[in-house]
Every structure is written in C-alpha cells, then in structure tokens.
Amino acid sequence: MGIMGICTFYFLVPIWWLFVGATKSRGDFSGTAPLWFADFHLGQNLSELFAYRDGVFLRWMANSVLYTGGAALLGTLLAAMCGYALAKYRFPGRELIFNLVLGGVLVPATALALPLFLIFSELEATNTFWSVFLPSLVNPFGVYLARIYATASVPEELLEAARLDGSGEVRTFFKISTRLMFPALVTIFLFHFVAVWNNFLLPLIMLGNERLFPVTLGLYTWNGQVNQLPELRMLVLTGALVSIVPLVVAFLLLQRFWRSGLGAGSVK
Amino acid sequence: MTSRKPILFFVLPFGLLFAAFYLAPIGYAIKQSLYKVTRTGTFGPAHEVFGGLEQYQRVFQNGPFWESVGRVLLFGVVQVPVMLGLALLLALLLDSGLVRGKRFFRLAFFVPYAIPGVVAAIMWGFLYSPNLSPFTAVTSNWNLLSADLVLWAMANVVTWVYVGYNMLIIYSALLAIPQEVYEAATIDGAGPWRTAWSIKIPLVMPAIVLTTVFSIIGTLQLLAEPQVFRTFSSAVSSTYTPNLTVYSTSSIPNFNLAAAFSVVLALATFVLSFTFLKFTSRGGDK
Fold first, then answer.
1. Which of A140, A148, A265, B68 could pair with A104 in a Cys bridge, judged by C-beta atoms 3.0 to 4.6 Å apart?
2. Mutate which of A76, A110, A117 to disrupt the B interface (most B C-beta within 10 Å)?
3. Which residues of chain A have pLDDT under 70?
4. What is the 3 state secondary structure string of B133-202?
C-alpha cells in the first residue's frame, strides 16, 4: 500500500501543481506556495490566453482536434479494413503486405519526418494542413492489432452465414464485423489518437505558418520565448492545462473500452 | 474463394497511403543520402550530384552524432529497465488482490500518458527550476538542469509519462491468465510472491517483450523532451540526441547529410528491436 501511495503522489502531484499554478496571477505564481491556491485567477488567465494574438491558442486547439481526431478516425477505419482483410481472406501478396506492415511498426515515425518534408517540398506542399494530416493517417500498428482482433472476434461461421444470406463482403464488414470488433477499434483509435497528438517532429519540420500549428507546437514556441516575453509564462502554463483536458476526458469516457482491449495485442 | 474486388476495397486505401507516406519516404531518404551538393566556384550555383557513400562516411566520422547515440543508449540501458520494472511491479500489485481501490490507482497511474511529451517536458522543466519548483529540498541541493543531471531529469519525464501505459499493457496480460493456473499453484502451496515470480511473470513475458521493443524504439527517437529542455538548460546542445542532430542538420540546411543520419538511425532502430525480438523469442522456445 505504501508503494501505491508514493506512486500516486509521483504521478498526480505534477498535474495538481499545473492546475494550481494555472489559477494564480503572475506575481502569486512565483511568490506563493506552489502546491496550494492563492487568489483565484484562473478566469483571467483563461481569457488572457484565449485573447492573446487574436485567439491563436484556440486556433491551435482546433487544429489539434482536426489533425488528431480526423487522422485517428479515418486512420482507424483504414487500418481496420486492411487488418480485417489480412485476417479473413487468402490472396496473393497477403504475406508480403503483412511483413511490410510489421516492418513499418519497427520503423520509427520520426525517421520519416525529414524525407516526408523533402517529398512535400518537391510538390510545393509543405506548410499546409495536408502535409501533416495525410502522413498521420498511416498506422501500421493499427493494422497489426486489427488483424489480431479480427481473427479473435469474428467467427468464420458467421461470415459464411452472411454469405449464404447473400450479403456482400463489404456490407458484412460494416454491418457485422465492425460491431464485433468495436472494443478493439476503440483501442486502435486511442493509440492512434495519442500517437498523432504527441507527434512533434513532423509539424515542427513541416509547418512555418503559426495558424496551422497543433497546440503542442504552439506551446513549444511560446515556451521558447518566455525569456524575452515573461508574460508568456502564465499563458504557457494555462495553455498546458487546457491542452491536456480533451485527452484526459477522452480517456475517462472511453475507459471501459481501452481497459478490455489494450492487452489483447500483447497476449496473443 | 472470394472475389478480388472486396479485398482490393479493404486493402487498397491503407496500402496506397502506406506506400506514399512510409515506403516512398524511406526510398527517397536513401536516394537523397547518396547525393551531395557541389558548387561551381565558391559562390556559384549549387547542384546535386551523385556522391556514392560519401554522406555515410561523414556520418561515421561525425563525433557529436555518435556521442548522441551513446547518450541515448546509456539513457535506455538505465531508464527502460527502471520504467518497465516499476510498471511490472505496479501491475503485479494491482493484480495481487492486496490493494483496494484498484480503479482509482489504475487511472491515477495512467493519466500522465494523456499528456503530450512536449507539454510534460514543459511542466517538468518548471518543476526542476530552482526558483519555481515545489520540491525546493531537491532543487536547492542538486541542479537538475546541469550537464551532469539533465539526462536523468529527462529520463524522469519519460518514465513519468510512460509507466502507466506500460503497466496497463502488462496488467491486461495478467488479467488474461486463466484462474485454474492459480488454483493449481495454491494447492501446491505457493504464496503470492512465489506465484508472481514463477507463474505470472513468465506468462506475461510476451507483454514485457512488446513494451520493451516499443521503449527501445522510443528511446532512440528522443526528441520532444531534449528539444524543450534546450530552453531550460544550456547543457542540452543541438546534437544532444540523434533525432536532434537530424533536425539541426536539416535546418542548416544539409538535406543529404540529414537523410543519411535518418537512414542510419532508422536502420539501427530496426536492427536493435528486431534483434531483441529474435533473441527473446528464441529464449521462449527453450
């Protein structure tokens, strides 16, 4: 029990500190006890944050949601389709595709960022929404997981029965198989969401226009300017707090799914 | 035999994107790494010519790059076992039945995973700063942002973010162990420690292997944490980790050399994680 207590302290105190810090005025932040409240200043901090430079922070949040939510939704669907086909059909090239995908899992995404930048600059497409969004759609680990889950949760007999009823393969996939795979799909979605939300090198290399930044890159640039513009410090802190809210909420809401699905990939 | 059409429908969208944004960049990086930029005269126009393995020769002669590789290896050798050991311990405790309030602990340990690396690094950067930190007892005695300690200060950030995630993977694997296995052990008179050591750990080995591979990949790719820490500590140079080297080389810009760095790094990551997988799966067969 002692270990659990110490660990809880270790994991939660920094978040508590961030929350308390974001409720303070600039003077109180460095002048009062860091782990307890002083004058409650969160409202002013938030309105200052949202108003700063024409509300660029809200723009960054919206960008992040678009990049991440969009890429994770669409990416999960594509990975599910591909993994499902690899699990349920025999066709020439199946092994090759699976091995390429597996290799893809081991190739770090950051190693791809620079060559992607070079390719996009030949197409004169860097510094656009698509230059970050399109590469973020690809999730080989999702295909790998989808294949495992499809094998485990979609029985052959059911597919046969659907065929006898005259249901086409695509229809069967969307009407029956995706339902059976749903908890697994939520897991893939969450993994993908976190991976894109965390991706830093790709937007850092690809984007020059501040209006296209995801929130992580935006906070990073502000944090780099704190020494010249000390008033940014409270904005960075408040922004950090706001930026972690969506993901924490998503985790809490989708708890029962990721709990059941998370381990399946490693057990088999 | 199903007709080809639905299979193409399922595989093609992912396949095309995978080819365009995974395979093509790898090919392109390899090609770029084989070229070099030459100029006619000192100020003449630049053009790219085939350079063979010249860039790779530069990579292998680049002292700071190999120092950074050594640095992340040292980081990995210490941080990965500490992080996974802690994750395993917490997973076993949650699974042991000794702990009440499992739901709460599971969630509390997992929350840091929801925080992006950049934001986590910014938070800890403040927490390490002597004049802002709530942990003045620590920060007044040790300068965590000094050249000696900053690597371990970053190791702490990575550990903080990823312990819960790894714990959950191992914990889910523990939950999947059938109850009969434990009944047999109890009949044989095995206590909780004995059960954990001789039954649980071997059975969740695949999960531990998986988390280790992901941790190795993650360690070699360290970027967000050192990049953020550069604003807090002058000890973090622009070539502190291999990925920072790639980034700073490409912003010079020297794309050909940066591409060669990328290729070497991807290859090293691939070989290291592949070797680890092979090594552990052979161990498992015995």
1. A140
2. A110
3. 258-268
4. CCCHHHHCCCCCCCCCCHHHHHHHHHHHHHHHHHHHHHHHHHHCCCHHHHHHHHHCCCCHHHHHHHHHHH
Strands B46-50 vs B35-39: parallel, antiparallel or unpaired: antiparallel
| CATH code of the domain occupying A44-267 | 1.10.3720.10
What are residue B35's DSSP bridge partners? Answer: B50
pLDDT of residue A261: 55
Residue for token pair 């802002």:
B132
Nearest CA in chain A to B175: A263
Element spanning B115, H or E = none
Tokens of A132: 């970050």
- In angstroms, the CA A141 to CA A225 distance is 37
Give the ipTM of the model, two decimals please: 0.88
pLDDT at B77: 95
Cα separation, B243 vs B249, in Å, equals: 10
Domains of chain B, CATH where assigned:
70-285 (1.10.3720.10)
How much is the pLDDT for A265?
Answer: 47
**C-alpha–C-alpha distance, residues A57 and A200, integer Å:** 17
Scan for tokens 């790219």, then name that residue.
B48
pLDDT at B17 over 70: yes
pLDDT digits (tens, 9 = 90+) for B183-213: 888 888 888 888 888 889 999 998 899 899 8
- A49-58's contacts with Cβ under 8 Å and 24+ in sequence apart are A49/A235, A49/A238, A49/A239, A49/A242, A52/A235, A56/A210, A56/A211, A56/A218, A57/A215, A57/A218, A57/A235, A57/A239, A57/A242
B116 with A97: Cβ contact below 8 A = no
Contact in structure between B238 and B244 (CB atoms under 8 Å): yes
Whether the ω angle into residue B253 lies within 30 degrees of 0, i.e. cis, is yes
Residues of B in contact with A3 (CB under 8 A): 89-90, 93
CB B241 within 8 A of CB B223: yes
The gap from C-alpha A69 to its chain's centroid, in whole angstroms, comes to: 7
B7 touching chain A per CB within 8 A:
yes
Q: What is the pLDDT of residue B43?
A: 73
